[in-house]
Model the fold of this input.
Amino acid sequence: MAKVHVTDVVLRDGHQSLIATRMRTDDMLPICSKLDSVGFWSLEAWGGATFDACVRYLREDPWERLKKLRRALPNSRIQMLLRGQNLLGYRHYSDDVVRAFVQKSADNGIDVFRIFDAMNDIRNLKTSIEAVKAVGKHAEGTISYTTSPVHDIPYFVNLAKELESFGCDTIAIKDMASLLTPQVTGDLVKALRAATSLPIHLHAHATSGLASMSIQRAVDNGVSIVDGCISSFAEGASLPTTESIVAALKGTEYDTGLDIGLLQEISAYFREVRKKYWQFESEFTGVDTRVLVNQVPGGMISNLSNQLKEQGALNRMDEVLDEIPRVREDLGFPPLVTPTSQIVGTQAVLNVMTGARYKSVTNEVKNYLLGHYGKAPSTVNADVRSLAVGNAEVIECRPADLLSAEMEKLRNEVEGLAKSEEDVLTYAMFPDLAKTFLQERNAGSLKPEPLLSKDTVTTSASRYAPSEFNVTLHGETFHIKLTGSGHHGEEQRPFYVSVDGVAEEVVVETLSEIEVSGAQNGNGEAKKKSSNSSNGSGRPRPSHPGCVTTAMPGTIVDVKVNIGDKVSAGDGVLVIEAMKMENEIQASKTGVVVAIHVKKGDSVTPDEALLEIQPD
Done:
């Protein structure tokens, strides 16, 4: 038996799982020379959510990141995670876009393409696999592992056989939600080795606490490559520790041959780097056996908690985690991996936040139910389908077969903004986001989101704001702990607190506020501001049944009506992006649109009237 090879994921999945994909390129480059000298089978460093995070939050060009990493890692295979026909976006792309993206990824430094489809729909993998083989790179066909009444070992074996027939070089088992048990791992690896001639590569997150045991069972049954993560970004929602894997196999017939001392030097570097990103840490990224039920993948949990925190709703995380498996069953048990994890997760958040299941349905759920992401693994809930899309026809073909060639159209749409084919592909992934990004990049005005200093957050003018305290009222003492809050600047702002261990929401309405940072009026008094009619945006609060509101904070991406238009209750009037998913907002009443308080690009919150309808 040949030694076991190791892929390390600290440059991609490690920080995606633990700090919401926020590590900047400048924090990667100084350690690359040591990473390059270890002798890993590959370094996963691109793809997944990194492309989105670079553009959306870090304001970095993801292609420039790849070029810099390629120069800094001359002796290492650089690996990326590619979502088949979805590439790195959240929809299917035409075949010419897929081929162009693979070509440019290879040109800029990718050696290994780990290719998966969220539905395990083999039709959505064929074009990208063929494109990788055409440019002479390594195609790793991937099984998105999950559990359900329809997902068993014969199911995954048949999938692996088809991937081998497409010309894949290796087969990856992608256990993104840490669902594999040691026994199933051994049985699955043994079955795959018997059915195919390809090396097997295991990727198993550590969320459930089972992954290290599963790796050992996989090695004993013939797996060739395993994924780990440098310890300072390992375990919990991330992957098992690379150093521990190396130590466990040292001196056996599977010895990796890697230098644990060098790995520990690399870990020490990343331990210091991680401190800079403290604001993105989450209490939900540790070992949590609930994942065996809710199946939320490691790459999603830190982003989900961060998004709920931004909405002032982190205290509702447990409700969302309980709702996710119910939504997944309604949709026919798709594996929870991008984009289906976002599709299911965002719908679960909506179901919780609106107080009624499927009162609001995202556009992505509608497209899923219509077959635009591929074939659902099992039967979908007929009532949910009817509620979301009515009697609309469900497509039976490969979704991309309905798409015409797009590259020329995309080039024309960003002519003058795009300076390269890579820019055009960035625009293809995230059109509205990329337009702003490219404009600011060309103007030299890109600014990343700030990295907060703990001192800045905890102190102000040498004073501390209490987050945990006792309140005595009428002789009875209550223990209060602040767990979250709405956005600063709102006159009506929710605070989420724990009162003697019971979660509560307290809405504080600002009638006046006084500035205490030193600014004064002409009389030497602190400035005072009064407001009791609207929030900081200037939009009115909902005041009658014809007011249209949003269930979640987000960004307006489309206004579908004009003042004077006649609408019926349930008609789509606005489209909002929240948690990276688009949600159509419907008219609350039948009548005439008499006021529109938003435009494309506006940030909005649930306590605002976005549009007003005069009922018939």
In short: The first helix runs from residue 10 to 18. The first strand starts at residue 5 and ends at 8. DSSP finds 22 helices and 24 strands in the chain. Residues 568 and 590 are 4 Å apart (CA to CA).
